[in-house]
Amino acid sequence: MGTDREKLVVIGNGMAGISAVEQILKLTTKFDITVFGSEPHPNYNRIMLSYVLEGSKTMDDIVLNDLNWYKDHGITLHMGTTVERIDAEAKEVVVDNGQRVPYDKVLIATGSTSFILPIPGSDKEGVVGFRDIADCEQMLQAARTCKKAAVIGGGLLGLEAAKGLVQLGMDVTVVHLMEDLMERQLDHQAAGMLQAELERQGIKFKMGAQTKELLGDNRVSGLRFTDGTELEAEFVVMAVGIKPNVAVAKASGMEVNRGIVVNDFMQTSLEGVYSVGECTEHRGICYGLVAPLFEQGNVLAKHISGVDTPPYEGSVVSTKLKISGVDVFSTGEFIDGPEHTVIANKDDWKRTYKKILLKDGKLVGAVLFGDITDSTELQKLIKQGAEMTDELYESLMGGGCCGGGAKKKASVETMSDEEIVCGCNGVTKGTIVDCVVNQGMTTVDEIKACTGATRSCGGCKPVVEQILQYVLGDGFTQTAKQGICGCTTLSRDEIVAEIKEKGLQTTKEVMNVLGWSQPEGCSKCRPAINYYLGMIYPDTHEDEKASRFVNERMNANIQKDGTYTVVPRMYGGVTTPEDLKKIADVSLKYDVKVVKVTGGQRLDLIGVKKEDLPKVWEELDMPSGYAYAKSLRTVKTCVGSQFCRFGTQDSMGMGALLERKFERLDFPAKFKMAVNGCPRNCAESCTKDIGIVGNDGGWEIFIGGNGGIKARLADSLCKVKTDEELIELCGAIMQYYRETGNYLERTSEWVERMGLEHIRSVVVDDTENRKALMERIEFALNQVTDPWKKVLNDDEQRGKLYHSLEMSNQL
């Protein structure tokens, strides 16, 4: 390292400090940089901790700057090391291991710590905060052994923690002191809608409750509230707030109030020492959100590098939250008072809400729920103090889900260059435009590699694509061409088109004619081609068992001990005493280890030996439940109008009818349905591929729901009045998905890729096309047979698959 360069010591290896370092590196090379971080990890994205908790991402996935990045930029990194104080006289930082490191400039970015309620029992085992990866690991460990959890705090962090724990299978109750969730970001209306949506996702709530003490001996066993009531909990997450981590500042004699006091250039009271992020107090405010720390870091980087910059004058705070498929946004003032003019629109049909507050005719705040398309534009207008006009009113309220028109796209033309596009990594519109104009970048992946935009949560990808489209015009290709696997450069649509055009009949023929790089294909492409051939030629294609996954070849799910599970059909989740007795008798006869009630309202016989499978099917004499296949799994139902006093439609009857009609047909991925007899949603239609809700006037159809790792609420497609319309629309939706879905693509992904409005135009609005789709699915259904009976009637297949000593598990 050059001795003529200034020594910059950064205390804190989190998002705020390293983001500021990234900005400094772009502006100057005059610093030798040393970074101290208390955690034993490189810089990672705390915003993504809930994804690590729920299991959809790993620690490696959320690392923002790996160890090679520090090395490549000549940065000395000390992990797992804490700076105790700054010795201003000696111009050295003093480390907990006794090391003293000289400095010319210091940047403090120590962030914040979880606030733990000072109540009896808060130090018991099983009580954690939710602030870093170590907290995540404790929560993951607890989920393996504990069933009931409580999350104290109904703010942003608390809801993220609750979401993750529910995804891990825990029974979770959010305990909140106030009557409204996220009361610092949402008004009463939006908070109520958010709570209702999260309750549908399985999170429980105890509102207006103050925790008095935590119960238990060494380990927590429950909570006692000030009103004397109690809640059982084997694990407790404290998410009641954060407090700035100011320990090093206090030990160094700096001016500290709630946070480390700084001026408009982020300078502390100690010469040559700066502070940014959650540990910082600027004009009396400590910010706990991401965007302000990037804005602070931008000003600090320019000032410390000797580049002219306007001072930091504070941030217009905004909050974007996407939890369990729910979009929420607020900015500026959001609680209306007598001084405000309120513009509001609530749509219970589409579960959207928009409120804009004016003061003296100027925009001062907004709340959005369900559709946050206008969030970027509103944030800019409120920051500018824009005056409301008829034209602006029409723009904001005349379109989108709340306005009744077609859903708008976020406007990138009107965004300023300073506006942050990627909140996770602090990437502005100007930075992205510079990459396109001056560095020749043309794809999202190139932008991601250069700036970090879209590499974390991915929520900014649509805006990045819009910026590329805006700058490049017709020169922008939305997605780079990718083959379905490494064996080919051909996409799904190209393969299907070639099969139809050339009349290809088998997977080997497809791979040979279309020039596969691997002559035998792979476990990704062989099942896909087999599916496409069956979809295109339902009457002539001979299913290729060798191209099926092992579960589909065996018509049962293999378990880790080599045994299998058997799930017979129970149409609409309804069975009979006679069938229950058969299941019990067969289970005893063949030594079934466990009989499990599934989430799809069926019985799962777990632990059947391979050689016993045909005999079990034969003696059950029930249809296959297809629990192993990419096909219609279940149609879940509630009791409905047959018995329930709230039911308005016969959900059990309709569920059984739909399941009998559409069973046995292959889909791109597993397919689940549900039918509710009323809007109370007991059958959980909101998380199914097709969800149906009965009402007094008929049925409402929802599509694209998913209750798995990537949870998604279903979108409302349409309402129908008759059973005949319902059946026809369900069939048309299924066939359109069969014909256009990528193999293994769930409808939750398919709906977002195709677009709800497009699907609606093809399936609902175009009645002729709907009838054609229905005719094609009827034709395909006429070709299918029950796979269990097929095996029983095929001695050769039965002997080959179920009595051989070995079986290939390549797929």
TrEMBL record:
It comes from the Bacteria. Siroheme binds at residue 682. Pathway: Nitrogen metabolism; nitrate reduction (assimilation). Residues 629-768 form the Nitrite/sulphite reductase 4Fe-4S domain. Its cofactor is [4Fe-4S] cluster; FAD; siroheme; [2Fe-2S] cluster. GO terms for molecular function: 2 iron, 2 sulfur cluster binding; 4 iron, 4 sulfur cluster binding; flavin adenine dinucleotide binding; heme binding; metal ion binding; NADP binding; nitrite reductase activity. Keywords: 2Fe-2S, 4Fe-4S, FAD, Flavoprotein, Heme, Iron, Iron-sulfur, Metal-binding, Nitrate assimilation, Oxidoreductase. One of its GO terms (biological process) is nitrate assimilation. It holds the Pfam family NIR_SIR. Residues 7-280 form the FAD/NAD(P)-binding domain. The keyword Transcription does not apply. Residues 559-621 form the Nitrite/Sulfite reductase ferredoxin-like domain. Binds 1 [4Fe-4S] cluster per subunit. Binds 1 siroheme per subunit. Residues 420-469, 484-533 form the BFD-like [2Fe-2S]-binding domain. InterPro entries: BFD-like_2Fe2S-bd_dom, BFD-like_2Fe2S-bd_dom_sf, FAD/NAD-bd_sf, FAD/NAD-binding_dom, FAD/NAD-linked_Rdtase_dimer_sf, NasD-like, NiRdtase/SiRdtase_haem-b_fer, Nit/Sulf_reduc_fer-like_dom_sf. Residues 318-385 form the NADH-rubredoxin oxidoreductase C-terminal domain. Belongs to the nitrite and sulfite reductase 4Fe-4S domain family. This is Nitrite reductase large subunit NirB. The gene is nirB.
